[in-house]
Amino acid sequence: MEIIEDGGEVLLYLDGRRTYLVRVEPERLFHTHKGYLNLGELIGKPYGSSIKSSLGIKFYALKPLIRDRIHKSARRTQILYPKDIGYLLVKIGIGPGCRVVEAGTGSGALTCALANAVKPDGRVYSYDVRPELQRVAAGNIERAGLRSYVELKIGDITERIDEEELDAVVLDMATPWLVVPIAHRALKGGGVFASFSPTIEQVMKTASSLRKQPFVEVETVELIMRRINVEENRTRPETLMIGHSGYITTARKVLD
Fold first, then answer.
1. Residue 151 placed within a domain
2. What pLDDT shows up at residue 188?
3. Which domain holds residue 99?
4. Which of 44, 83, 208, 247 could form a disulfide with 225 if both were Cys (CB 3.0 to 4.6 A apart)?
5. Looking at the domain assignment, is residue 3 inside a domain?
């Protein structure tokens, strides 16, 4: 049974709309609109245990998952939704030991998901042209316990990729089509190119560039997610939903 340790993090669950990612320390008080919690009471308890606030409201202390860290990460840019990240991970086919280049780093949400997939023997090389964003990302990656699997690099990926024989190149940037020929040189045979773009114009330019290089399986998808409210005699889709977030374009490298 895995227990909560001094200095560890927990996801405090109040209800489906309110969760809080916090660090557990002796005598540390966490204040909410439902009263304060003495987080030190959680030390030595198993994950999933409950804790009551000063007002007698019950919270549950869950072990943070990657999706929790993505939602709760400090950010200065828009992050990808888990629905898009999950599809990307399956589509690029990476696992332990794989080597992946990512650009741009942004807040590090996708970086964390990639690093979690390739650990313990793989590596993520994350490029960005903005040092201030990578400083934020570094903190998020560190808090997720994944820093040792990530190399943060300041550089313009439209000019060069230092790494070779990569399993995947994953892009979340404004001009992915400029990277296509450079990505082809950096990928191993059969390696996967993937890009996330919010507009169809970006997709058109990227797909056109991919078809001018030795790539196959050029494909673009859009993922729509709709939650369902499940209550007796009242089950129906939520009124608000995550509609368009972006388009995902993928392709696989072949040799001349």
1. yes
2. 97
3. 68-253
4. 83
5. no
Please answer whether residues 139 and 165 qualify as being in contact, where contact means their C-beta atoms are separated by less than 8 angstroms: no
204: which residues sit within 8 A by CB, 6+ positions away?
none
Enter the pTM of the model: 0.84
Sign of the four-CA dihedral 206, 212, 214, 218:
positive
pLDDT at residue 72, rounded to an integer: 76
**d(Cα 244, Cα 150) in Å, to the nearest integer?**
29
Query: Does residue 2 form part of some domain?
Result: no
pLDDT in tens, 76-95: 556 688 899 999 999 999 99
- Give start and end residues of each alpha helix (H) in the chain: 66-72, 82-92, 109-118, 131-143, 180-186, 200-211
Task: Report, as an integer, the average pLDDT of 23-44.
Answer: 95
pLDDT on residue 151: 98
Residue 4 lies in a domain: no
Q: What is the pLDDT of residue 76?
A: 54
How far, rounded to the nearest angstrom, does the alpha carbon of residue 181 sit from its chain's CA centroid?
A: 25
CB contact burial 183-198 (16+ within 10 A = b; e otherwise):
bbebbeeebbbbbbbe
Is residue 25 within 8 Å of 8, Cβ to Cβ? Answer: no
* pLDDT tier at 242, thresholds 50, 70, 90: confident
User: Residue written as tokens 């979690």?
Assistant: 116
Look-up: residue for tokens 């939704």? 81
